[in-house]
Amino acid sequence: MAVASHLAAKGVHARIFGKPMDFWHSQMPKGMLLRSPWSGSSIGDPHQAFTLDSYETALGSPLSRRLPLEDFVRYGQWFQRQALPDLDSRNVAGIAPTDHGYRVTLDDGESFHTANVVVATGIGSFANRPAVFGSLPPELCSHASDRPNCDLGRFAGKRVAVIGAGQSAFESAVLLREQGAEVEILMRQRQLRWVNTRPFIESLMDSKLYPLKAPGRIGPLGLNWLVEHPALFTMMPRELQRTMSYRAIRPAASSWLRPRTEDIAFTTGRHVIAAGENHGKACLKLDDGVERTFDHVLLGTGYRIDIARYGFLPAHLLESVRAANGYPVLNRGFESSVPGLYFVGTTASYSFGPYLRFVAGSQYAATVLSRHAVPAQTKRSNVSRSYRERAAPADAR
After folding, report:
1. Same domain, yes or no, for 36 and 100?
2. For site-directed labelling of 368, which of 43, 81, 334, 354 has its Cα 20 to 30 A away?
3. Residues 93-98: contacts with CB under 8 Å, at least 24 apart
């Protein structure tokens, strides 16, 4: 939505497809609170007219600064109505390269030609399901982002293992316990990590006296400013980028969850080496030989990016996309090695750093992509086979 709004402001005819906020609405658990701060949770628009502050004003009533999921979904839907009233809620089923661009096919069979495609589909396709749990059926093992887990109340009275050490695992565990489940978190880390535990540092970042503003607060003080300036971040050697990225987004949970974990059991420094079914239960064997039995296993194991998992991108197109560890390698305008095929969001984080994983990064991505694409469109408008830098994004989400 951020990219399409920027392109529209520059007079580019851009068609956008997908259900607004669908991932947040149907694949995140009810009762969730955003980990990102208020200052880093506004969707980018060219005039900053549709921020969370603007939405709150339009709503006429105050919103909690620790934003509930439901309010964020409603904000995103309001953004769409204001900035992109002509959004098409159909999904994209396939994208095929042609001699002069791409043939886009929608889920109802309609197809059309476009010179360029922007893939901005979020992380819904990339749930990380460790192979050790592959033998367990869906009724015994699911990922935290699976659609049925939008309502964790279905596990009331059940014994549930939550696998993971990050925000998704911890918040899912808290919500499960508050819905009446008996919960144990199993994690490889030897200790629990909490973020935002130093009020003085938090107040310093909010202070007008602190020059290094980082609204998204992605990582510790100082590093968060560098992360939010991708042009500087990506000047670092690749190995240093990897180290800084891990430090900025390593598994951890917000400190405001801590008081809500008192009735949750933790097993730290252990991992599952075998999983199987026995009499309708999930049986897990840990690396120390101990076995546990649960009614369900919930994977809070995050996401593993691999654009080959996009069902709408055919294999023959993907073979031409230069990639690294599943991420597309992008130029400074978010364009892949295949002319006219752009990627934004988390899939762009290999090329631009962890800032692109967050809502806060939508302003940067949309600004840079539209700046790159629009001048190229004007310059080459009279060339029959241009470099295809005129953007007409298709959001296949």
Report:
1. yes
2. 81
3. 93/311, 93/312, 94/312, 94/314, 95/312, 95/313, 95/314, 95/317, 95/394, 95/396, 96/314, 96/317, 97/316, 97/317, 97/320, 97/338
pLDDT digit string, tens, across residues 184-215: 999 999 999 998 756 656 666 666 656 667 88
Predicted TM-score (pTM) of this structure: 0.90
Q: Which residue has the tokens 């010179």?
A: 115
Are residues 34 and 85 located together in one domain of the fold? yes
Q: The CATH number of the domain where 72 resides is what?
A: 3.50.50.60
User: Which of 380, 385, 353, 383 has its CA nearest to residue 368?
Assistant: 353
Residues 141 and 273 in one domain: yes
Q: Can you read off the two tokens belonging to residue 31? A: 């009762």
Task: Give 84's pLDDT tier (boundaries 50, 70, 90).
Answer: very high
Cβ contacts of 276 within 8 Å, gap of 6 or more: 135, 136, 282, 283
